[in-house]
From TrEMBL:
Organism: Desulfobacca acetoxidans (strain ATCC 700848 / DSM 11109 / ASRB2)
Keyword annotations: ATP-binding, Kinase, Membrane, Nucleotide-binding, Phosphoprotein, Transferase, Transmembrane, Transmembrane helix, Two-component regulatory system
Annotated ranges, domain PAS: 17-55
Membrane-topology annotation of the record: Multi-pass membrane protein
Protein name from the UniProt record: histidine kinase
UniProt-listed Enzyme Commission number(s): 2.7.13.3
Major subcellular location class: membrane
UniProt GO MF annotations: ATP binding; phosphorelay response regulator activity; phosphorelay sensor kinase activity; protein kinase activator activity
InterPro entries: BphY/WalK/GraS-like, HATPase_C_sf, HATPase_dom, His_kinase_dom, HisK_dim/P_dom, HisK_dim/P_sf, PAS, PAS-like_dom_sf
GO cellular component terms, A-Z: membrane
Protein backbone atom coordinates (compact mmCIF):
# COMPACT_ATOMS: atom_id res chain seq x y z
CA UNK A 1 0.00 0.00 0.00
CA UNK A 2 1.41 3.40 -1.01
CA UNK A 3 2.35 5.64 1.92
CA UNK A 4 0.87 9.16 1.80
CA UNK A 5 3.15 12.13 2.41
CA UNK A 6 1.57 14.59 4.83
CA UNK A 7 2.02 18.34 4.17
CA UNK A 8 4.52 20.06 6.46
CA UNK A 9 3.78 23.33 8.24
CA UNK A 10 6.06 26.35 7.85
CA UNK A 11 7.81 25.76 11.17
CA UNK A 12 8.34 22.07 10.26
CA UNK A 13 9.92 23.04 6.96
CA UNK A 14 12.26 25.63 8.52
CA UNK A 15 13.44 23.09 11.12
CA UNK A 16 13.92 20.44 8.42
CA UNK A 17 15.97 22.85 6.26
CA UNK A 18 18.15 24.00 9.17
CA UNK A 19 18.89 20.40 10.21
CA UNK A 20 19.82 19.49 6.62
CA UNK A 21 22.39 22.27 6.14
CA UNK A 22 26.02 21.05 6.11
CA UNK A 23 27.32 24.11 7.99
CA UNK A 24 26.63 24.72 11.65
CA UNK A 25 23.45 26.79 12.15
CA UNK A 26 22.22 28.42 15.34
CA UNK A 27 19.12 30.60 15.70
CA UNK A 28 18.34 32.96 18.57
CA UNK A 29 15.44 35.08 19.74
CA UNK A 30 15.59 38.80 20.50
CA UNK A 31 17.16 38.06 23.89
CA UNK A 32 20.00 36.08 22.27
CA UNK A 33 18.67 32.79 23.65
CA UNK A 34 19.04 29.76 21.37
CA UNK A 35 15.91 28.58 19.58
CA UNK A 36 17.54 25.96 17.32
CA UNK A 37 20.87 24.22 16.70
CA UNK A 38 21.39 21.84 13.80
CA UNK A 39 23.32 18.57 13.65
CA UNK A 40 26.43 20.17 12.12
CA UNK A 41 26.35 22.76 14.91
CA UNK A 42 26.13 19.97 17.51
CA UNK A 43 29.20 18.31 16.00
CA UNK A 44 31.27 21.53 16.00
CA UNK A 45 30.26 22.80 19.46
CA UNK A 46 29.99 19.44 21.20
CA UNK A 47 26.59 20.37 22.69
CA UNK A 48 23.35 18.63 21.79
CA UNK A 49 20.37 20.60 20.56
CA UNK A 50 18.44 19.75 23.74
CA UNK A 51 21.28 21.13 25.90
CA UNK A 52 21.59 24.31 23.83
CA UNK A 53 17.91 25.32 23.60
CA UNK A 54 17.15 28.31 25.82
CA UNK A 55 20.81 28.98 26.62
CA UNK A 56 22.53 32.26 25.77
CA UNK A 57 24.29 32.02 22.41
CA UNK A 58 27.65 33.02 23.93
CA UNK A 59 27.48 30.18 26.48
CA UNK A 60 27.41 27.60 23.66
CA UNK A 61 29.54 29.14 20.93
CA UNK A 62 32.07 30.82 23.24
CA UNK A 63 33.67 32.48 20.24
CA UNK A 64 36.27 35.24 20.25
CA UNK A 65 33.53 37.52 18.92
CA UNK A 66 31.14 37.09 21.84
CA UNK A 67 30.52 40.40 23.61
CA UNK A 68 30.68 43.82 22.00
CA UNK A 69 31.83 42.48 18.61
CA UNK A 70 29.13 39.80 18.40
CA UNK A 71 28.23 39.41 14.68
CA UNK A 72 24.67 38.37 15.58
CA UNK A 73 24.07 41.56 17.57
CA UNK A 74 25.57 43.67 14.79
CA UNK A 75 23.37 41.97 12.17
CA UNK A 76 20.23 42.37 14.27
CA UNK A 77 20.95 46.07 14.83
CA UNK A 78 22.08 46.95 11.29
CA UNK A 79 19.79 44.60 9.39
CA UNK A 80 22.72 43.58 7.16
CA UNK A 81 24.57 40.25 7.01
CA UNK A 82 27.89 40.20 8.90
CA UNK A 83 30.76 37.80 8.13
CA UNK A 84 33.80 37.31 10.33
CA UNK A 85 36.61 34.85 10.96
CA UNK A 86 36.55 33.77 14.60
CA UNK A 87 37.77 31.16 17.06
CA UNK A 88 35.24 29.28 19.18
CA UNK A 89 35.82 26.89 22.06
CA UNK A 90 33.88 23.63 21.94
CA UNK A 91 32.64 21.63 24.89
CA UNK A 92 36.11 20.08 25.39
CA UNK A 93 37.62 23.60 25.37
CA UNK A 94 39.32 22.91 22.03
CA UNK A 95 39.87 25.93 19.78
CA UNK A 96 38.18 25.73 16.39
CA UNK A 97 38.75 28.35 13.68
CA UNK A 98 35.46 29.13 11.96
CA UNK A 99 33.93 31.53 9.47
CA UNK A 100 30.79 33.08 10.96
CA UNK A 101 27.97 34.66 8.95
CA UNK A 102 25.14 36.28 10.90
CA UNK A 103 21.81 37.72 9.71
CA UNK A 104 18.73 39.18 11.33
CA UNK A 105 15.43 37.24 11.23
CA UNK A 106 12.39 39.43 10.54
CA UNK A 107 8.75 38.71 9.76
CA UNK A 108 6.87 39.93 6.66
CA UNK A 109 6.22 43.27 8.37
CA UNK A 110 9.87 43.86 9.22
CA UNK A 111 9.54 43.10 12.93
CA UNK A 112 12.67 41.60 14.49
CA UNK A 113 12.23 37.97 15.50
CA UNK A 114 15.83 37.16 16.31
CA UNK A 115 18.90 36.13 14.36
CA UNK A 116 20.57 33.23 12.59
CA UNK A 117 24.28 32.45 12.44
CA UNK A 118 26.06 29.89 10.29
CA UNK A 119 29.56 28.74 11.15
CA UNK A 120 31.97 26.54 9.22
CA UNK A 121 35.15 24.84 10.39
CA UNK A 122 37.94 26.67 8.58
CA UNK A 123 40.64 24.03 9.18
CA UNK A 124 40.21 22.22 5.81
CA UNK A 125 40.24 25.55 3.93
CA UNK A 126 43.31 26.79 5.83
CA UNK A 127 45.08 23.53 4.96
CA UNK A 128 44.09 23.88 1.31
CA UNK A 129 45.40 27.47 1.22
CA UNK A 130 48.67 26.36 2.81
CA UNK A 131 49.04 23.61 0.19
CA UNK A 132 48.34 26.09 -2.62
CA UNK A 133 51.02 28.41 -1.26
CA UNK A 134 53.49 25.53 -1.11
CA UNK A 135 52.55 24.53 -4.66
CA UNK A 136 53.18 28.10 -5.89
CA UNK A 137 56.60 28.05 -4.22
CA UNK A 138 57.39 24.67 -5.77
CA UNK A 139 56.49 25.93 -9.25
CA UNK A 140 58.59 29.04 -8.77
CA UNK A 141 61.67 27.06 -7.75
CA UNK A 142 61.39 23.66 -9.43
CA UNK A 143 59.74 24.63 -12.73
CA UNK A 144 60.67 28.20 -13.57
CA UNK A 145 64.32 27.83 -12.54
CA UNK A 146 65.26 25.14 -15.09
CA UNK A 147 63.37 26.92 -17.88
CA UNK A 148 65.25 30.16 -17.23
CA UNK A 149 68.51 28.18 -17.19
CA UNK A 150 67.76 26.49 -20.51
CA UNK A 151 66.83 29.86 -22.06
CA UNK A 152 70.19 31.25 -20.96
CA UNK A 153 72.16 28.36 -22.48
CA UNK A 154 70.21 28.57 -25.74
CA UNK A 155 70.94 32.27 -25.94
CA UNK A 156 74.68 31.56 -25.64
CA UNK A 157 74.37 29.10 -28.53
CA UNK A 158 72.49 31.72 -30.61
CA UNK A 159 75.28 34.20 -29.99
CA UNK A 160 77.90 31.72 -31.24
CA UNK A 161 79.65 31.48 -27.87
CA UNK A 162 80.41 27.76 -28.41
CA UNK A 163 81.11 27.79 -32.12
CA UNK A 164 79.59 28.77 -35.45
CA UNK A 165 76.23 27.28 -36.54
CA UNK A 166 75.09 26.68 -40.07
CA UNK A 167 71.89 28.31 -41.37
CA UNK A 168 69.64 25.31 -40.66
CA UNK A 169 71.01 24.85 -37.14
CA UNK A 170 70.53 28.57 -36.48
CA UNK A 171 66.89 28.38 -37.67
CA UNK A 172 66.11 25.35 -35.50
CA UNK A 173 67.81 26.94 -32.50
CA UNK A 174 65.85 30.17 -32.96
CA UNK A 175 62.56 28.24 -32.99
CA UNK A 176 63.51 26.35 -29.81
CA UNK A 177 64.58 29.59 -28.12
CA UNK A 178 61.30 31.38 -28.94
CA UNK A 179 59.26 28.42 -27.64
CA UNK A 180 61.27 28.39 -24.41
CA UNK A 181 60.57 32.12 -23.99
CA UNK A 182 56.85 31.44 -24.53
CA UNK A 183 56.95 28.71 -21.89
CA UNK A 184 58.79 31.00 -19.47
CA UNK A 185 56.15 33.71 -19.97
CA UNK A 186 53.33 31.20 -19.45
CA UNK A 187 54.87 29.98 -16.18
CA UNK A 188 55.42 33.58 -15.00
CA UNK A 189 51.79 34.45 -15.80
CA UNK A 190 50.51 31.40 -13.94
CA UNK A 191 52.67 32.12 -10.89
CA UNK A 192 51.62 35.78 -10.84
CA UNK A 193 47.96 34.77 -11.00
CA UNK A 194 48.38 32.31 -8.11
CA UNK A 195 50.33 34.85 -6.02
CA UNK A 196 47.68 37.51 -6.59
CA UNK A 197 44.87 35.06 -5.90
CA UNK A 198 46.47 33.94 -2.60
CA UNK A 199 47.44 37.53 -1.69
CA UNK A 200 51.11 36.51 -1.63
CA UNK A 201 51.77 39.26 -4.18
CA UNK A 202 50.26 42.49 -2.84
CA UNK A 203 50.31 46.00 -4.36
CA UNK A 204 53.01 48.30 -3.02
CA UNK A 205 51.23 51.60 -3.51
CA UNK A 206 53.06 54.89 -4.06
CA UNK A 207 52.34 58.18 -5.81
CA UNK A 208 52.89 57.66 -9.55
CA UNK A 209 52.49 59.88 -12.60
CA UNK A 210 49.92 58.10 -14.75
CA UNK A 211 51.09 59.47 -18.10
CA UNK A 212 54.65 58.22 -17.54
CA UNK A 213 53.42 54.72 -16.71
CA UNK A 214 51.14 54.66 -19.77
CA UNK A 215 53.94 55.87 -22.06
CA UNK A 216 56.18 53.06 -20.77
CA UNK A 217 53.47 50.52 -21.68
CA UNK A 218 52.93 52.06 -25.14
CA UNK A 219 56.67 52.14 -25.92
CA UNK A 220 57.10 48.54 -24.82
CA UNK A 221 54.14 47.39 -26.96
CA UNK A 222 55.00 49.45 -30.07
CA UNK A 223 57.28 46.83 -31.74
CA UNK A 224 54.49 44.25 -31.46
CA UNK A 225 52.00 46.72 -32.97
CA UNK A 226 54.34 47.74 -35.82
CA UNK A 227 55.05 44.10 -36.67
CA UNK A 228 51.32 43.57 -37.16
CA UNK A 229 50.66 46.93 -38.86
CA UNK A 230 48.56 48.27 -36.00
CA UNK A 231 48.57 51.98 -35.15
CA UNK A 232 49.06 52.37 -31.37
CA UNK A 233 47.85 55.66 -29.87
CA UNK A 234 47.64 57.28 -26.41
CA UNK A 235 44.87 59.79 -25.61
CA UNK A 236 45.65 61.71 -22.43
CA UNK A 237 44.30 64.87 -20.73
CA UNK A 238 46.57 67.91 -20.54
CA UNK A 239 46.74 68.05 -16.75
CA UNK A 240 49.17 65.89 -14.78
CA UNK A 241 47.42 62.96 -13.07
CA UNK A 242 48.84 61.49 -9.88
CA UNK A 243 47.54 58.14 -8.65
CA UNK A 244 48.33 56.08 -5.58
CA UNK A 245 49.03 52.60 -7.02
CA UNK A 246 51.65 49.93 -7.61
CA UNK A 247 53.49 51.10 -10.75
CA UNK A 248 54.72 47.60 -11.71
CA UNK A 249 51.27 46.00 -11.36
CA UNK A 250 49.53 48.90 -13.12
CA UNK A 251 51.90 48.56 -16.08
CA UNK A 252 51.28 44.80 -16.05
CA UNK A 253 47.50 45.27 -16.23
CA UNK A 254 47.69 47.91 -18.96
CA UNK A 255 50.31 45.93 -20.88
CA UNK A 256 48.14 42.79 -20.87
CA UNK A 257 45.13 44.74 -22.16
CA UNK A 258 47.13 46.56 -24.86
CA UNK A 259 48.88 43.38 -26.05
CA UNK A 260 45.53 41.55 -26.07
CA UNK A 261 44.02 44.34 -28.20
CA UNK A 262 46.94 44.23 -30.66
CA UNK A 263 46.77 40.43 -30.86
CA UNK A 264 43.12 40.47 -31.99
CA UNK A 265 43.35 43.57 -34.21
CA UNK A 266 43.55 43.30 -38.01
CA UNK A 267 46.37 45.06 -39.92
CA UNK A 268 45.90 48.78 -40.62
CA UNK A 269 43.60 49.16 -37.62
CA UNK A 270 44.05 51.24 -34.49
CA UNK A 271 44.43 50.50 -30.77
CA UNK A 272 43.96 53.43 -28.38
CA UNK A 273 44.81 53.70 -24.69
CA UNK A 274 42.66 56.49 -23.21
CA UNK A 275 42.93 57.99 -19.74
CA UNK A 276 40.32 60.24 -18.09
CA UNK A 277 40.22 62.01 -14.74
CA UNK A 278 36.75 61.43 -13.27
CA UNK A 279 37.39 63.29 -10.03
CA UNK A 280 37.64 60.62 -7.35
CA UNK A 281 38.61 57.97 -9.90
CA UNK A 282 40.92 57.62 -12.89
CA UNK A 283 39.47 55.71 -15.84
CA UNK A 284 41.62 53.70 -18.25
CA UNK A 285 40.21 52.47 -21.57
CA UNK A 286 41.89 50.19 -24.11
CA UNK A 287 39.94 50.29 -27.37
CA UNK A 288 40.49 48.21 -30.51
CA UNK A 289 38.89 47.75 -33.93
CA UNK A 290 39.01 43.97 -33.90
CA UNK A 291 36.24 41.43 -34.55
CA UNK A 292 34.48 42.11 -31.24
CA UNK A 293 33.45 39.61 -28.59
CA UNK A 294 30.58 37.15 -28.72
CA UNK A 295 27.88 38.09 -26.15
CA UNK A 296 28.07 34.54 -24.71
CA UNK A 297 31.75 35.10 -23.92
CA UNK A 298 31.41 38.45 -22.14
CA UNK A 299 30.40 37.12 -18.67
CA UNK A 300 33.37 34.69 -18.62
CA UNK A 301 36.04 36.84 -20.22
CA UNK A 302 38.06 37.38 -17.03
CA UNK A 303 37.76 33.78 -15.80
CA UNK A 304 40.95 31.78 -15.41
CA UNK A 305 41.92 29.77 -18.55
CA UNK A 306 38.75 30.85 -20.41
CA UNK A 307 39.08 30.82 -24.20
CA UNK A 308 36.28 32.49 -26.15
CA UNK A 309 34.59 31.21 -29.29
CA UNK A 310 36.34 33.77 -31.47
CA UNK A 311 39.89 33.16 -30.22
CA UNK A 312 40.76 31.79 -33.64
CA UNK A 313 44.41 30.92 -34.17
CA UNK A 314 45.67 33.30 -31.51
CA UNK A 315 47.84 31.60 -28.89
CA UNK A 316 47.45 31.80 -25.13
CA UNK A 317 45.57 30.17 -22.28
CA UNK A 318 43.45 33.09 -21.09
CA UNK A 319 45.74 33.99 -18.16
CA UNK A 320 46.30 37.60 -19.22
CA UNK A 321 42.79 38.92 -18.58
CA UNK A 322 42.45 36.89 -15.36
CA UNK A 323 45.64 38.57 -14.07
CA UNK A 324 44.28 42.00 -15.03
CA UNK A 325 41.15 41.31 -12.99
CA UNK A 326 43.16 40.29 -9.91
CA UNK A 327 45.38 43.39 -10.18
CA UNK A 328 42.44 45.79 -10.50
CA UNK A 329 40.58 44.13 -7.61
CA UNK A 330 43.74 44.32 -5.46
CA UNK A 331 43.69 48.11 -6.07
CA UNK A 332 39.99 48.36 -5.05
CA UNK A 333 39.12 49.13 -8.67
CA UNK A 334 36.37 48.14 -11.11
CA UNK A 335 36.84 46.34 -14.44
CA UNK A 336 34.41 45.75 -17.30
CA UNK A 337 34.21 45.40 -21.08
CA UNK A 338 31.89 46.66 -23.83
CA UNK A 339 31.81 45.02 -27.23
CA UNK A 340 29.66 44.14 -30.21
CA UNK A 341 30.51 41.62 -32.90
CA UNK A 342 32.23 43.37 -35.78
CA UNK A 343 32.56 46.61 -33.80
CA UNK A 344 35.72 46.02 -31.78
CA UNK A 345 36.03 45.93 -27.99
CA UNK A 346 36.67 48.47 -25.22
CA UNK A 347 38.12 47.36 -21.89
CA UNK A 348 37.53 49.76 -19.00
CA UNK A 349 38.88 49.94 -15.48
CA UNK A 350 38.58 52.64 -12.84
CA UNK A 351 41.01 53.09 -9.94
CA UNK A 352 40.33 55.34 -6.94
CA UNK A 353 42.78 58.22 -6.61
CA UNK A 354 43.04 57.83 -2.85
CA UNK A 355 43.78 54.12 -2.80
CA UNK A 356 44.16 51.66 0.07
CA UNK A 357 47.24 51.35 2.23
Amino acid sequence: MEKKLLPLGLSDWSHFIIQSIADGVITVNGEMRITDLNRAGEKITGYSRAEALGKYCGDILRSSMCGRDCPLKQAMISGEAVSREAVLHNRLDQKIEVMLTASALRDDHGNLLGGVETFRDNAPFKLMEKERRQLAGMFAHDLKGPVVGVAGLLNRLRQGKVGELNEQQQAFLETIYQEILRLEKLISNFLDFVRLDLHILKPLASAIQVEAECLAVINRSRPMAEAKGVDLQLAFPQEVIILNADAVLLQRALGNLVENAIKYSPPQSQVILKVQDLGKEIQFVVQDQGPGIDPDDLPHLFDLLYRGKDSGQESGLGLGLAIVKRIIEAHNGRLWVKSELGQGASFFFNLPKANFV
